[in-house]
Amino acid sequence: MTGLLPFYRRGASPLHATRACVGALWASALTAATLLLYQPLVLLALLLAILGAAAGAGVGRLVARSLRTALIVALPIVVVNVLVSRQGLTVFARVGDMGPFGQGHLTVEAAVYGAVIALKLTLLILISTLAGLAVDPDELLRVWRRLSFRSALTASLATRMLPVLAADTRRLSEAQRTRPDGAPSGARGRVALLGAVVGGSLDRAMDVAATLELRGFATARRAPRLWRPWSRHDIAFAASAAAILGLAVLGRLAGAASFSAYPALHMPVGAGTLALCAALIGAVLLPFGDRRGIDL
Amino acid sequence: MRAPLLSFDRVSYRYPGRDVPALHEVSFEVQPGEFCLLAGLSGHGKSTLLRAACGLAPHFHGGRFAGRVTLAGLDTREHAPARLGAFAAVLFQDPETQLVMNSVRAELALALESRGHVAAAVARGVEEVALALGIDHLLDRCTHDLSGGEKQRVALGAALAGRPRMVLLDEPTSQLDPVAGDELIGLLRRLNQEWETTILLAEHRLERCLAAADRVIALQRGGVACDGDPAAFLEWAALQAPALQTPGAKMFALAGLRPPPVGVRQARRALRSHGLLPEEDQPQPAASPAGRAPRRRKAPVALSMRGVWHELRDGPAILRGVTLSVQPGESVALMGRNGAGKSTLLRHAAGLLEPTRGRIERAGRVALLLQNPGDYFIHERVADEASAEALEAVGLAEMAERNPRDLSGGERQRLALAIVTGTRRASAERPAVLALDEPTRGMDREAKAELGGELRRRAAEGQAVIVATHDPEFAAACARRAILLADGRVIADGDARELLAGGWYFATETSRILGGAGGALQPEQGAELLGARALAPSSSPGHSGRSAAAAADGALRSRSSEQATAGWVVR
What we know:
The structure holds 2 protein chains of 2 kinds.
Chain A: H1 14-17, H2 20-36, H3 40-56, H4 60-84, E1 91-97, E2 103-107, H5 108-134, H6 137-145, H7 149-177, H8 186-214, H9 232-254, H10 271-285
Antiparallel strand pairs in A: 1-2
Chain B: E1 6-14, E2 23-30, E3 35-39, H1 46-53, H2 56-59, E4 64-71, E5 74-75, H3 81-84, E6 88-91, H4 104-114, H5 119-133, H6 148-160, E7 166-170, H7 178-194, E8 198-202, H8 206-209, E9 215-220, E10 223-228, H9 230-240, H10 247-255, H11 264-273, E11 303-311, E12 317-326, E13 331-335, H12 342-349, E14 357-362, E15 366-369, H13 382-385, H14 388-393, H15 409-421, E16 433-437, H16 445-460, E17 464-468, H17 472-478, E18 481-486, E19 489-495, H18 496-499, H19 509-513, H20 523-535, H21 543-567
Parallel strand pairs in B: 3-8, 3-9, 6-7, 7-8, 13-17, 13-18, 15-16, 16-17
Antiparallel strand pairs in B: 1-2, 1-4, 4-5, 9-10, 11-12, 11-14, 18-19
Helix pairs in contact in B: 4-5, 4-6, 10-20, 20-21
């Protein structure tokens, strides 16, 4: 029943088999590339690569669901940008006086720029979903615990408690549905229900705190350093991260990903741009081709 | 004599804001390597005593503390739980609140890492505890994907990873099925015998663990009422606290046999020595031969399921073609291991889930009481949760002004029952079926008896009652029919007396003692059977003894069946 919830589960994929800090580094490289690049074609190539990576990691279905959620967040950005931006030259509609926003001249440039920002936001959401599903948070936070034990453990608890709270909410909602006169309605009912959820969470928090206390939370020391030989997947994803970052910087500096929306659209698509797209897709997906030494 | 590992010296403790002390003048010592059982009714101080033993009371809970507790020579007032935790591990009732990491491996490693062990020691400690508890195959699993039994084992592993000298356990089997519960008790016994780990275990279902214990400490109103070996405890319980007697001990006491048996093996030996048990058991069917209850044509049906499947989109089938029907006034116990599909079946019955295949028909509303009664409470007053009539029906009318969260476990269960069966509107439809999912979790025997009585009353009024339970004693006491589920399928469906008499796990203690003779009898009926056997013409062991015993058993079986039909079951 929790199979479709977006939480980390160990899976049989190269990304799951990679050590967490390399997985996080790879996700960070994708994030950096998304932030550095504006060329829509390159961003679409990144989108394709990320969806391919999600499929390669065996979490395609969950990432696709996240894509739907991301679009719900991203689409209003396009609409708002079209309504408030006055920098474009190509007017495609005039909607008259818009009060504090002045004359409503809607431009193609504002629509395209809004779409680029929305696409970047979508990519960021997909990257974090993919990382959340395929990078072991315990292992990652273990590294962090060497720096700050308590804050890392608190973060660990937060990630652990997400599915627990989701299960609590489901349970409470089921219990309310079994009431003969149905779940309480109206603002007062919702407040009462919220109070019950919060009350239950606080009870649980007390027990969790007692458990942590007995496990030595108060006297906690720095986590020991663990040495692990680098696997082929660690090396592949580290190389992939370096390649993604390098390509993004190179594309930006060499002008292969140049793009400007205002005052008029400037979006040259040459061989360099296409090569950058292909290279980015390859850099993202190549580590998924090697599935040796993976176990569940 | 070795120094005690745990010592309570005139300890009294009162929680903040409470007038009544939770512990009162408690004194006892636990020697290293002892297996001690803490017995007592709900609210009599077992959990508080465990919390005082590890320093959570008063360090964590606050309150007023008097007296002295020492653990491994450390005074708990002077040392914090984090320090004491190195000597005593604690396992609470709900494993969900004891798992703080996402993966099992990280969970087992956390306590070792936070106590500053080097990496090699952490890795070794994790592997060893996983192998010792048989959870090595779970090491790379996510904690939120584990079953209840697996979570409890992992929580125990996390507690044991640092090799503490003592383990304190608060009703660890209350959420487990009989198989997982027995496995956990066996595991504790092995830890105790092979590693000399000291065990202090609070438990309601004493019949499950009494035979493993060296000593029993019984608490009454926060004080130690009895402290002795299991046999001495049972002698005391027969006189002073009948609610703490095991079913076997109760049967012996009613039959006038002494001493009370500590376990099934001892009871059977004692009965044989008295000539009340044949040398060889008569074979008992594990279930009705056809595996299904006989069909009654044209009988009214309160709930009918035909070929019901529940298949997860990306996962296994939870229910696989379940077909059953329940008549008005029928009481059914639904049994099976954790994950067998009991809760899912009840959710389908109540319409919370839609079957992916199959059909469900209901004669009226199905009231479903889910596992955690606290999930139903959303108001500050009991009176706001259900109508006065519903509260009256469950005996909570006098508590109308109390906060639901201040009620005891049994009272909370009754209030939840009032909520799902009644309504804030007095004119609401009366449910045709009452379904309860594990209603006896964490309940003591008194509360279970109360609930059993309430369910029998409702069945007698014509309501169909379906109870999913892990407790064979409760099932035998409140159900006429039992259904055994495994892997989403009905594997046995028949008379509860037959079905709960022939197995190893899903059988009452009385029936295990009597070898299933007479069916799954209550202790009173078991005592009657023993009395009948004693009066039979030939009661000596052997063939003729078996014949006499069989005659007595047959007479009792038919009589108890008649009583049940005439008494509260309308079929």
